[in-house]
Amino acid sequence: MSSSALPAAAAPNEAAPATEVTTSGGRRGRRVTATAASLIGVVPFGLLVTFFLAIPTLVVIIGSFLDADNRFTLANVRGLADDVVLQAYWRSIWISAVTAVVGALLGALVAHAVSTAVEGGVLRRVITAACGVLAQFGGVTLAFAFLATFGFTGFVTVWLQNTFGVDPYGAGGWLTDTPGLLLVYSYFQIPLMVIVFLPALDGLRPQWREATETLGGSTVAYWRHVAGPILLPSFLGGMLLLFANAFSAYATAKALISQGSPIVPLKIDAAISGEVISGQDNIAKAMALGMVVVVAVVLWLYARLQRRTSAWLR
Amino acid sequence: MAAVTGGTRPGSLGRRRRRRQAVQRWVVVAVTGVFFLLPLIAMVEFTTRAPSGSGRTLDVWRTLADVGRLSEQYPDLLDGVTASAGLVVLTVLLMLVLLVPTMIWVRLRLPWLRRPMEFACLLPLTVPAIVLVVGLAPVYAWVAYFLGPSSLTLCFAYTVLVLPYAYRAIDTGLSAIDVRTLSEAARSLGAGWFTVIARVVLPNIRSAVLSASFLSVALVLGEFTVANLLSRTNVQVAINLLGKRDPSISVAVSLTSLVIAFLLLLVLSLAGVRRRSRGPRRRPDQTVLAATPVQEIS
């Protein structure tokens, strides 16, 4: 509430840049005062970021290397090599990778279909809005939607039983396990890919296709030699983004999976909300740090790809 | 599509391709449409089942519409909805009061702070909510000590979570106008900094601020991780809690929140279209809708 008032309060002090100052020493002195006064304007925002972003991040990073008595230790990080933890990481990475690839392929297909529609038309607007919702609205809501569809008494399950006498649960509770996660995750991965990939497809100029045709190239040649290479970086970039998205998802899995903690976010949850075993807290921090490292590497690759892409899509 | 692909193309070839594209488009849209509508239809079907096993009833929806009955039978749910509503208001307010003026201020007076500020605002993308919550636990121990254990205190954490999306929406808006010239003009006419920010720059980025607010609303309505792990409540926590006892009411609430979010984003996309018709900017509706780092991260 005070931040918009603060700049006004700082206003009287900072007349320096506007006034002509002749001696260079005097100018510098005034500049410093002016900058100091200007800095007051960013203090409220700075406080928020410090307390609710910087400190939590540092707590995780530093906590990963402390034991229960706050002494330096590598035991937590070494604990990541534990079989159960490694397995959770492996499963997390595997699920994220599969849904990223599937989501990217199907999402690109839908994005291409949408990109050929009239720009600003109804179809396009409804699909982009729907994708916006579905991409963001993972979590509990989505888990319940799928329980109502493929769950034990879900719509499709009941329909299959009544119509074909097939019981999809013959193989056990697949929805509340890893296969279920794959299905549900793709429900938000595909729309995300549509949103991410659509601008790239829109960047393709019709002239490039015309040039290919004028030179005698077929549709296949156009996709293989012209559009493909141009789109490849954004396609891979979208895939990386999808990976990071699935890797950091927690709510969907929490609401869907009934027992055990097969993936890293659920492992972290179990470690911090379970009975307080000394040191367990810091192992959670080490697992969290591991997640940050994975996501950071993926997003760094994404940013590099993005830089290559932007040269073409202006 | 004629407007996009037409032009100098040799007639018959282009027309044939366009027809093929139209067929492809409808096939793809229809197939994926079934996949994406199926859970929604299932939710409607699930919530209208009669307890006897056959027939339909609207009982669940009637309960949901009746606040009195809701508070009597599902007090947790009402608590969650109230908390979420309060959090939406507080988070949007906090975002508007802290982020927007600071971004304008940094652009005008402290350009060297722009990169660090961008880094800070995009950092929550690299730190997943589940990780942030681990570090937030000690911070919230202090928050509870000073401000009490209310769920509304989550608004600070939520403001941090919406930073990347709000920052990008507002940054797009600010890049589209000449902030410096506007502020110099206003200053030379005798305006103070408060007037420059609140009455000159802000009205010019109104639609960007609006989309940042919409995105914040959608994100806060869908948030579960932080609230659940800090043992606070909001609508998602309530849905999850209720799911074990009474699946049909929690599925009904899920569907309602999905529909509300969809309508919000549709409104947002329409606002984006209106804006486009006024200016030459390319497809602002999409850049705004994309709640993901479509542009560069670093």
Please, could you describe this protein's structure?
The complex is a heterodimer of chains A (314) and B (298). Chain A has 314 residues and is mainly α. Chain A has one domain (76-313): Orthogonal Bundle (MetI-like fold). Helices cover 73% and strands 0% of the residues of chain A. In chain A, helix 3 packs across helix 14 (280-310), helix 9 (178-202) packs across helix 11 (219-248) and helix 10 packs antiparallel against helix 11 (219-248). Chain B is mainly alpha-helical. Chain B contains 15 helices and no strands. Chain B is globular. Classes of the chains: A mainly alpha (314), B mainly alpha (298). Chains A and B meet through helix 1, helix 2, helix 3, helix 5 and helix 6 of A and helix 1, helix 2, helix 5, helix 6 and helix 7 of B.
Note the main attributes of this structure.
heterodimer, A: about 325 residues, mainly alpha, MetI-like fold, disordered N terminus, B: 15 helices, globular
- Our count of helices of chain A gives 14
Helix/strand-derived category of chain A reads mainly alpha
User: How is the biggest beta sheet of chain B arranged?
Assistant: none
Query: Which shape of chain A, going by the Cα principal axes?
Result: globular
Rg from alpha-carbon coordinates of chain B: 24 Å
**Main beta sheet of chain A:** none
Quaternary status of these chains?
Answer: heterodimer
Q: Determine the structural class of chain B based on helices, strands and strand pairing.
A: mainly alpha
Report the portion of residues of chain A in β strands: under 5%
Order of helices and strands of chain B: HHHHHHHHHHHHHHH
N- to C-terminal separation of chain B?
Answer: 35 Å
What would CATH call the homologous superfamily of chain A?
A: MetI-like
Q: What is the name of the CATH class of chain A? A: Mainly Alpha
* Helical content band of chain A: over 70%
- Gyration radius over CA of chain A: 26 Å
The count of β-strands of chain A is 0
How confident overall, as mean pLDDT of chain B?
A: 81
- Greatest interface and its participating residue counts: A-B, 112 and 111 residues
Strand content of chain B: under 5%
Number of helices of chain B: 15
